[in-house]
Amino acid sequence: MTIVLIILVLLIAALGTALYFQMKSAKDSAEEGQQLLKDYQKRVDELEHLLKDYRDLQQNFNNVGEGYEQALLAFDKMEEERQTMTNVKEKLEKQVNDLMASKSILEQSIIKKKELIQQAAEAIKQKIDFATPNAAKIAQLANTILNLNDVETETTIQAEDNCQATDITDQAIRETGIDKIDYLRFINQAAEEAQATMLFTNQPMAVRVLVNLLDNAMKFTTSGSVTLLTNINGSNVEFVVEDTGTGITAEDAEKVFEPFTKLNSFFDGAGCGLTVARSIARRLNGDVKLDTEHAGGARFIFTLPI
User: According to the UniProt record, what class of enzyme is this (predicted)?
Assistant: First the structure.
């Protein structure tokens, strides 16, 4: 009985042990299964995260691709516009070059015509016999042609002549015939120092300045006198033309030197004599000014450097 009981106890113990290990093995398997499940879920989560990152990356790539395509389109448009602007610029440059070439040809033609007109007018003046009637009128007409030809000309005048101041005044008096006009009194006075002074200038052009000033005085002085004074003032010779004519207001002192300006339309002329007189004087390094303080007519001062 005792042996049977012992065997029975051992058998139960063996079964309990086997059941324990079986249960432990099942628990371990369950825990291992749970751990595997957790690991699997973690892996799944990681894969889903990677998949999300991939989708985001793909979306970014798509966005970049669209932006790149848009950039390419914009670049192509800019390149097309640049090419269009280049073509327009080239056409404009060609037009400008053509215009400049035409302008140069036209300017050369105008210069040549001006030279021919000047040569013709100067030839007329040289052939005039001032001892004959109407010689002064012919000279004045030639001088008017020269004035019209010389308006707004800025070409430098070369000094080529050694002459006395009286050479200039004598020739200007002869060309205008002012000393032979019977309706006014002409006075010509030269300071002793001025008579002995030599100038290095362009004599024909200096004469033209004085002729224009004398013509202007004759035109606007219907009675009274015109006076030509030649003085030395510092390093300049002064040719002063005074008249007892209508005079010029201080407000018009500069206006009279504007081209084609006539303050009185009742008198003949193109209104450019004083313009050309000042222009030539300045190109001879001198000047022509109106003395605005002079009363009882007009007083112009023509200066030339000694």
Answer: transferase
Q: Burial level of 163, CB count in 10 A (0-12/13-18/19+)?
A: middle
Tokens read off for 131: 């001892």
Query: In DSSP terms, which residues pair with 300 in a beta bridge?
Result: 241, 290
pLDDT on residue 203: 96
**What pLDDT is recorded for position 127?**
61
CA distance 305 to 230: 13
Q: Round to whole Å and give the CA distance between 19 and 25.
A: 9
Mean pLDDT of the chain: 80
Which residue, 276, 208, 283, is CA-closest to 239? 208
* Look-up of token digits 């990677």: 50
Bridge partners of 190, per DSSP, are 230
Cβ atoms 243, 298 nearer than 8 A: yes
- β-bridge partners, 227: 187, 242
Residue 190 to residues 65, 161, 209: CA-CA distances in angstroms? Answer: 96, 20, 17
Q: Which residues contact 146 (CB under 8 A, 6 or more apart)?
A: 117, 118, 121, 122, 208, 276
